[in-house]
Amino acid sequence: MKELEYQTLSDAELLTAYKTAASFHMKAVKSGDFEAGNRQYKIIENCYRELRSRGEESQKKLLGLLDSSDDGVRVWSASHALEFSPDIAQDVLQELELKNDLIGLTAHYTLKEWQKGSLKFP
């Protein structure tokens, strides 16, 4: 999907695309398929960028993904939520950080970069 096409999607459609890409991204990374992971990352990035361009009300719709049963979706949405709801996002990332897997490691380093002030958002 081209970047301009994201502008034509509703918030609900962006959230669905974000959720799907976040889930597939983590599965691709876990399996070592970094090419597929990079494609999914671009979708995540474009969806988030478009939601952010629409304002905080649209961004905050990502908070609904924090309760997902898919930890890939949770870690991505919590990471982006640091920008607009840091207290809620940090709680989720701290919970995920306790997992002894790639999700836990991702949550740990995301929090570490956030606390250093070096986390950048797309």
Q: What's the CATH C level?
A: Mainly Alpha
Mean pLDDT: 95
**What is the assigned CATH homologous superfamily?**
Phosphatidylinositol 3-kinase, accessory domain (PIK)
Instruction: Describe the sheet with the most strands.
Output: none
What radius of gyration results from the CA coordinates? 14 Å
How many separate structural domains?
1
Spatial separation of the terminal alpha carbons: 17 Å
What kind of assembly state do the chains in view correspond to? single chain
Uncertain spans, ≥5 residues at pLDDT below 50? none
Number of helices: 7
Question: CATH topology, which one?
Answer: Serine Threonine Protein Phosphatase 5, Tetratricopeptide repeat
Topology as H/E string? HHHHHHH
CATH architecture: Alpha Horseshoe
Bin the helical content: over 70%
| Beta strand count | 0
The backbone outline, from C-alpha atoms, is: globular
Tell me the β content: under 5%
Structural class: mainly alpha
Could you explain the architecture of this structure?
- The chain contains seven helices and no strands.
- The protein has 122 residues and is mainly alpha-helical.
- The chain has a single domain, classed as Serine Threonine Protein Phosphatase 5, Tetratricopeptide repeat (Alpha Horseshoe), CATH 1.25.40.70.
- The chain is globular.
Please outline what is shown here:
With 122 residues, the chain is an all-alpha fold.
Key attributes of the depicted protein:
Serine Threonine Protein Phosphatase 5, Tetratricopeptide repeat; mainly alpha; 122 residues
Topology:
Blueprint: H1 3-6, H2 11-31, H3 34-53, H4 56-59, H5 71-81, H6 86-97, H7 102-116
Helix pairs in contact: 2-3, 2-5, 5-6, 5-7, 6-7
